[in-house]
Amino acid sequence: MVHPLHIADARNAIRHVFIRDFVLHCSIGVHRHEHVRPQRVRINLDLAVVDEGDIGDELGNVVCYERIADGVRAIVGGRHVKLVETLAEDIARLVLRDGRVRSARVRVEKLDVFADAASVGVEIERFAAGPLAATTTQ
C-alpha cells in the first residue's frame, strides 16, 4: 500500500515535488546470487520544497524532477549496494543538496524477492539542516 501524497503546506510555504513508481535495474543485495544479476527496484520520492512564490514559469526557479531522476539513475547504476537502506540514504543525501529541499521521503522497494509479496523495502524521511527544517510538518 502506497501512502497518499502529502498536501502542499501553505502555512509554511511548502510545495511537494515527487517522483512515483520509478522502476530501475539495480545491483543490490547481500546474497551471492544478487551480485550476479541486477534486480528491479521501485523508488518513490516526495520532497518538501520551499515555495518561494512566483516562479515566473521558469524551470530554473523550481526543483527539477528530471535532474533528480538523472541523479537517482547515476546512484543506482554506479555500484553494487548491499542494503535498500543504503540506497535510500544515498538518494536522500542527493536530493537534500538542493537548499530549497527541506525534507525528503524516500521509499526503495525490491520487486522480485518473494513470489507471494509485491515488494520488500524501506521508507525513510530525512530533513535538511537549517531554520526551516523544524517547521516542515507532514
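^ that was protein a. below is b, sequence first then the C-alpha cells
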Amino acid sequence: MVAFHRLLGTADEIAALAARALEESGARQIHDLGSGQGGPQADVLAALRRRPNLESVTITLSDLYPSPEAAAACADVAGLSYRPEPLDAAAPGPLPPGLRTMICSLHHLRPEAARAVLGDAARARQPFLAYEISDNGAPAALWWTAIPAAALLVPFVTLWVRPLSLLQLALTYLLPLLPLCIGWDGAVSNLRTYGLADLDELLGEVPCEGYRWEKGTLGSGPSKRLYLLGLPEA
C-alpha cells in the first residue's frame, strides 16, 4: 500500500492538509486512527517536518488490532510511534490534544461508527482529517473495472516495494494471486468510500457548535482523492 501512495504522491497532499490543521490549532501531535500497517505516515511525517514551524511534529499510530510488524518499523523513524494496546477509533477515550487522522480507513467503518469518530473529535474540539485515495464518484455499475486496472498496475508497483520477499515475487509474477486480491480489495474499498453526499449525511447528525467542517476532492479524472477536514473555531 505504501508503494501505491508513493506512486500517487499522496504524502505531500496529506501533509498539506494536516499542516493547515496543525497551524490553525497550534497542535504538534498527530493521533492516527485505524492505522493498520501504517500506510504513508512515515512519508507524511517527513513532509511535515520539512515545513517551517512543524519540525517537532510527531505521529502516533493506533489500531483496534495493532500490527507488531508496523510497530517495529516505527522504531526506526524519529517522531513516529505505534500504540501497542488496541484502540477503537469510534470510542478512543481520552486522547492527548492533537490532530486526529484517518488515512484511507474511514471507509472501513459503518455509518454509526463513522459518526462516532467525527462526533468525538468535534466534542473534544480537536482537529480532524480523513483522506481517501478514491472519491467514489464513478458510476456504481463500473465498480468491477478497478479489479483489472489494479491487477495490471500491481506488477509494476511491486518493483518499488521494500522489503520484497521471494513469496511476494512468486505470487505477483508466477502465480498472480496478489494482483487479483489487491484489485478486489481496491474495488470493494472504492464502493465503501463515503462520497461528498455521504459525508453530508454523516455530518448532519454530528454536533457542530464551535466546530467547522470542510470537505472536497483533489486531482481529476479517475484518480480523484477525497478529504474531510474538521477544525475547532476560536
